[in-house]
Amino acid sequence: MEVKEEKAGLRVPFIAGNWKMNKTIAEAKKLAAEITKSAFNLEGAEIVLCPPFTALYEVAKTIEGSSIQLGAQDIFWENGGAFTGEISGSLLRDVGCQYVIVGHSERRQIIGENDWIINRKVKAALRNQLLPILCLGETLEERQKGLTLTRIKAQLDEALKDVNQDDVSKIIIAYEPVWAIGTGVNATPAQAQEAHHYIRMLLAEKYGQELAACAIILYGGSVKPENASSLAKEADVDGFLVGGASLDHVSFVKIIEKMIEVKGK
Ligand code: 13P
Questions:
Q1: CATH of 8-263, one of 3.10.620.30, 3.40.50.720, 3.30.70.590, 3.20.20.70
Q2: Domain layout of the chain by residue ranges
Q3: Active site residues
Q4: Ligand 1 centre and the CA of 221: distance in Å?
Q5: Which residues are registered as beta bridge partners of 16?
Q6: Pairing of strands 239-242, 131-136
Q7: Atom of ligand 1 nearest to the CA of 224
Q8: Residues 58-114: pLDDT tens digits?
């Protein structure tokens, strides 16, 4: 199934920085302040910072009054109660988050999160008016076995199980091939486009053309200022989820600029 492209213009370029387990409170405040300052004049993109939990409050205060939004890196699926060490959607809303990353491959691979958990987390985010940034992507072994698209479909189907159409329309999808994360080896623009186009087609088949054409699909995995333009030029790449290069304001803001240059209005 092909996706009609006339709605592509409605997709706002979207760049999120996933700081992972980096930055003390003082470092996070400094980085957020630098990004806010240098991105001040940039229009036409949604920018989201995802610091560690410990820095969310201070980063929220630092970006207040700017158009930059706050995201968390994880969420627990229950609303509250005796769940030692976990953070609920309502607590994330309380600290100022609008977004939350769900299903990052580091949580799948290292912590052992499965599709069942990820589905519950997606629903918990939506229930708490948080917009999920749902990560999916194949391992190197899966790619080498020709299972890339099969794996993407399985992850998408499972994560969106019993999520209604209206809620699916709020989800940002991030295609992050595991072999490209933190390795310096990014997917080629053609590899990214193939995966993104496939995801959009799956959304069209299940939820209709309109939803698919408006869906924001990010690429993540060794995005740098040097490769941002060529990736952004692909039709179905609407933005980036940036790890390492988001830890430095110069490289992160350059990536935002490149994205706006290619896809901005
Ligand atoms: P890198 O940009 O460091 O490869 O990380 C990507 C990522 O995992 C973003 O969520």
A1: 3.20.20.70
A2: 8-263
A3: 104, 176
A4: 5
A5: 48, 241
A6: unpaired
A7: 2
A8: 999 999 999 999 999 999 999 999 999 999 999 999 999 999 999 999 999 999 999
